[in-house]
Amino acid sequence: MSTLVTGIAELVTNDVSRGEGPLGVVSDAALVIADGAVGWLGPAREAPAADRVLDVEGRAVLPGFVDSHAHLVFGGDRAVEFEARMTGRRYDGGGIASTVDATRAASDDQLRARLRALVAEMRAQGTTTVEVKSGYGLTIDDEARALRLAREVTDETTFLGAHVVPAEFAGRRDDYVELVTGPMLAACAPYASWVDVFCEPASPHAFDGDASRAVLEAGRRAGLGLRVHGNQLAAGPGVRLAVELGAASVDHCTHLVDADVDALAGGTTVATLLPGVEFSTRSPYPDARRLLAAGVTVALATDCNPGSSFTSSMPFCIAMAVREMGMTPSEAVWGATAGGAAALRRADIGHLGVGARADLTVLDAPSYRHLAYRPGVPLARALDV
Ligand SMILES: [Zn+2]
After folding, report:
1. Looking at the structure, do residues 194 and 283 belong to the same domain, yes or no?
2. CB 317 within 8 A of CB 336
3. What's the whole-model pTM score?
4. Distance 23 CA to ligand 1 centre (A)
5. Domain residues for 18?
6. Which residue of 28, 66, 119, 227 has the smallest Cβ count within 10 Å?
7. 32 and 119, same domain (yes or no)
8. pLDDT digits (tens, 9 = 90+) for 177-228
């Protein structure tokens, strides 16, 4: 069964050999989907016949958004903490403990219902791939449970036992790192593709460079790919550690020194920017232009989580990246699609070349530019083909 998707005013391919500009835009385009992949694309007037025709009537079509950083397995919410922060309280990662308590107290069905609702909410806004982290269980059983549930909705699951040091290990960080790198990792690795760590020596709740290295190296020995939360609250070792160890992505990158930018420019690690966090914690945004000028690969993601960024909207992140971080609309759209795919080391998503997975997002607008031009308007949705 093949489907011809036609009537596309503007098709973003992210393939510069296929179309105009950095997004490889083809105007008045069509594409043919067969067996879940792109089989043909080009000008609509040259389209071959297919079993079925879907006319999108002058809308723009993009590769589905790739949200490469999200925390979707949790109980409760932190709306009250958000309100307090908006009246001046500073964010230091400490509120995570309240989500840990609520997550441990929740049943599998409660966690699953929340998780599935958030994935559906994302899809309704154009996200077709999402990475999901553990990190609110922080016991062997609760972390393994989070990853088992996450695996029900995505292959991109990340073990984040080293999110914060839980209350019962207060003053015994080394003991907790031993648990994370030992029996907790062993229980979680079967359900995880990645390992991650909140490397933030400036936070009393997170992990310094040595502990982060221990977590990442243990994860690698267990066969997991590496990701890092780094340089969110202050400059620190996270970015350079991520590059040194060949992590797929280092996320946040809000506080960088020249050596961090140089390391990213010389390495293979993607810098994933999460503007929803700066928005929701009222913090300075990362300097996207500095990274782009240095030739660093920049991705955008939501960091959807109940504390520091409870948005599931990639279009909102694109709008912020353009308005607040100086990215061009095309840079932001690339970061939310191809950039996210690079951050997950995936070649089959984030673009719409022949052979790519048929993950399409359609806009109720004629151009990708409308994502930033019309902030807060629900233009994007994943297309069911
Ligand atoms: Zn995060």
Report:
1. yes
2. yes
3. 0.97
4. 27
5. 2-63+351-382
6. 28
7. no
8. 999 999 999 999 999 999 999 999 988 899 999 999 999 999 999 999 999 9
Is the same domain home to 34 and 69? no
Of 372, 287, 282, give the one whose Cα is nearest residue 323: 372
pLDDT digits (tens, 9 = 90+) for 50-91: 999 999 999 999 999 999 999 999 999 999 889 988 988 876
Distance 135 CA to ligand 1 centre (A): 9
pLDDT at 339: 98
Residue 75 Cα, ligand 1 centroid: separation in angstroms?
Answer: 16
Same domain? For 11 and 160 the reply is no
Q: Cβ distance 335 to 300 under 8 Å?
A: yes
Number of folded domains that form the chain: 2
Total Cβ atoms within 10 A of residue 295: 10
Note whether 124 and 251 are same-domain residues: yes
Q: Which long-range contacts (CB under 8 A, 24 or more apart) does 103-107 make?
A: 103/73, 103/74, 103/75, 103/76, 103/136, 103/137, 103/142, 103/146, 104/75, 104/137, 104/139, 104/142, 105/75, 106/75, 106/76
- Residue 67 Cα to ligand 1 middle (Å): 12
- Ligand 1: distance of its center to the CA of 174 in Å? 22
CA of 228 to the centre of ligand 1 (A): 9
Ligand 1 center–CA 273 separation, angstroms = 11
- CA–centroid distance, 356 to ligand 1, in Å, is 28
